[in-house]
Amino acid sequence: MPLALLALVIGAFGIGTTEFVIMGVLPQVAAEFGVSIPAAGWLVSGYALGVLIGAPILTVLGTKVSRKKMLLFLMGVFIVGNALSAAAPTFALMLVGRVVASFAHGAFFGIGSVVAAGLVAAEKKASAISLMFMGLTVANIIGVPGGTYVGQAFGWRVTFGVVALLGVIGFLGVALLVPEQRKPEAAKIRTEFAAFGNAQVWLAMAMTVLGYGGVFAAITYIAPMMTEVAGYSPGAVTWLLVLFGIGMFLGNLLGGKFADRALMPMLFVTLSALGVVLLLFTVTAHSQVLAAITLPVIGGLGFATVPPLQKWVLDHASAAPTLASAANIGAFNLGNALAAWLGGVVIAAGFGYTAPNWVGAVLAGSALLLSFLAAFLDRRSRAVETTETTAPVPAQV
Question: CATH number of the domain at 3-383, please?
């Protein structure tokens, strides 16, 4: 693995930890600030919306400097946001800290995806992207469970303080390992926005919102679901998150490997299976054993969609990939925000802690329908191109 990719993995680990660790300490945060669990879910939605807003803005601003300098700036923003979360005296300031930290997320992964894809041959782009996202999945195996344990043992503020330190390590990794690159041309900004004229880019982002949103509908409220429905102790949530993280790790690797060979079939299979498993989770969540089996499957299927969807965007915005790539990362988090909000709505409506699984299944099924449409449009476009290429040239008189 190139050293530059290792630096991206380190940064992704820190960002992945702060994004997901809130789910493990959500009850503690809600209790300290005196808010309900659905209200505390805004710490997930707020982060996700911050990614959605920050991704395009910071990516465009990043065209003014080298990618390395931009990555260093983003890690600095990440550190400040998490430090603010750790010290926040009120729920409102805690939310502000989450949003500040989230601004770094989309642009980091968007720029990182372009850098990762550029480090390898064309036929290995999805695999390279999956390696960068490996930091995010490893965070769910080590960082998130570890942060949850620290939060339960020493307080959630300590958790976010440790996450800020992870940001410092990520900053140093980028500074030491990512080579300096030339400053992008200013004219490229207009070209980057032109990528959004491609319908396939919008379809990919819509699939991202719905598909990954399906995962977050269930996972956002995993702590109360497992303690109140499955009957686990609060301490057991740490190990359940480890299982979920292992599933994400394996799904990410498999998604990258098979997306290089058969991208759309990979999406068809994973989105179909994800919808079915989320439906089953409404039942298996009532059993400790079955819940423990289902969680890594959800993580694996959910994250197996990440490399193919990111590659689909890069392929269809190949002339201007940076902004489109970052926007798709924002789409992942729009799905997170939508799912966290919808999950909170059905819980607040009195449908119980397993109701978000139904929401997730509907979102995943909708993403599957869009994948069929994207594949159909792609085949039709290729057929038209082939016809135009092979059409006989009229003879000149």
Answer: 1.20.1250.20
Contact indicator for 216, 44 with CB cutoff of 8 Å: yes
**Structure letter (DSSP) for residue 142:** I
Do 106 and 89 touch, CB atoms closer than 8 A?
no
pLDDT in tens, 315-358: 776 666 667 767 777 787 788 778 888 888 999 898 989 999 99
113 close to 318: Cβ distance less than 8 angstroms: no
The sign one gets for the Cα dihedral 95, 98, 102, 103 is positive
Distance in angstroms (rounded) separating the CA atoms of residues 186 and 179: 21
C-alpha 190 chain-centroid distance:
26
DSSP of 259-303: HTT-HHHHHHHHHHHHHHHHHHHHHHTTSHHHHHHHHHHHHHHHH
Q: With pLDDT > 90 as the criterion, what percentage of the chain qualifies?
A: 26
CB 125, CB 117: distance < 8 Å: yes
What does the pLDDT read at residue 394?
54
Residue 296: both structure tokens together:
């890594």
Half-sphere exposure in the Cβ direction for 242 (13 Å, CA)? 9
Residue ranges with strand state E in 42-126: none
**Residue 6: partners with Cβ closer than 8 Å, 6 or more residues away:** 173, 177
**pTM score above 0.85:** no
DSSP conformation letters of 324-337: HHHHHHHHHHHHHH
Which of 78, 74, 48, 76 shows the shortest CA–CA distance to 62? 74
Nearest CA-CA partner of 117 in 106, 104, 131, 137: 131
Q: Which residues lie closer than 8 Å to 369 by C-beta, 6 or more apart?
A: none
Q: Which tokens sit at 282?
A: 């409404």
Domain ranges in the chain?
Answer: 3-383
